[in-house]
Amino acid sequence: MAVVGMLYVELDDVQARIAETEAGSNGSDSDAKWKAAEARVRASCSAQELGEAGAVSEVPEERSEQVKAAYREAAKRIHPDLAEDEDERARRASVMVEVNLAYEAGDESRLRRVLEEWDTRPESVKGDGLPAELVRLIRQIAHVERRLLDIDTEFEEIRISDLHRLKQASDAAATVGRDLLTDMAQDLKRQIREAGKRFDELIAARNA
Asked: What is the rounded distance in angstroms from the CA atom of residue 201 to the CA atom of residue 18?
C-alpha cells in the first residue's frame, strides 16, 4: 500500500474524471454515464481501501445485548478473583485478556468460543487416578485438534489471498534481480501521465 496504493488511487481518480468529462460531452449517451458512475465508484473504493489499510481499527461504540451477555457470562466464570491459587489466577488473567479483546471487537462468536474452551479445559477436571487423567488427556487432545483446524483455516485464507499471490510474484521477480513493486510503481506512474494527458486533451477540446 505504501509503494503503489496511492498511485492506484490517483490513477482511478484521473480515469474517473476522464469518464465524467466524456459523459458530459455526450449528454445523451447513457452508456457513457454508466461508465462514468462506475469509474467514480471504483475511485472511491480505492481511496477508502487505502484509508482503511493505514487506519487503526475502531472499537464499536455500541455492542449488542448478545455480546454484553456473553461478556458478562465469561467474566462471571473466568475472572481472576475466582482463582484458588496464584497459578490459576495467572491462567485466568491470561484468558480474560482474550475475553476483553473479543468484547472490544464486539465479537460474540469469539467470546463464546473462549468460554467453551475454558469450560472444556483439561485443568477443570478435578481428582486423581486414571479416570480423571484420561478425561484430562482427551480434553487436551481435543483442544490441540481444534487449534490445528483453526490454523488450517487461517493458512488457507492466506494462501488464496491477493496479498499472498503478490508476495509470490514479488519473490519470483527477486530471484531474477527485479523489484516487482518498483516496476509496478513505474508502470502506474506512466499510466497516470498518459491518463492526465488524455484528460487535459478532453478539457481543451471541450473549451475550444
From this structure: 10
Closest CA to 12 of 207, 196, 200, 202: 196
Helices (H) and strands (E) in the chain, counts: 8, 0
- What are the cell numbers at 89? 489466577
Which domain, by its residues, includes 10? 5-56+161-207
Whether 104 maps to a domain, the answer reads yes
Number of domains in the chain: 2
Predicted pLDDT at 189 = 93
Q: Quote the pTM value.
A: 0.48
Beta carbons within 8 Å of 142's beta carbon, 6+ residues apart? 120
Q: Which helix (H) or strand (E) holds 138?
A: helix 130-159
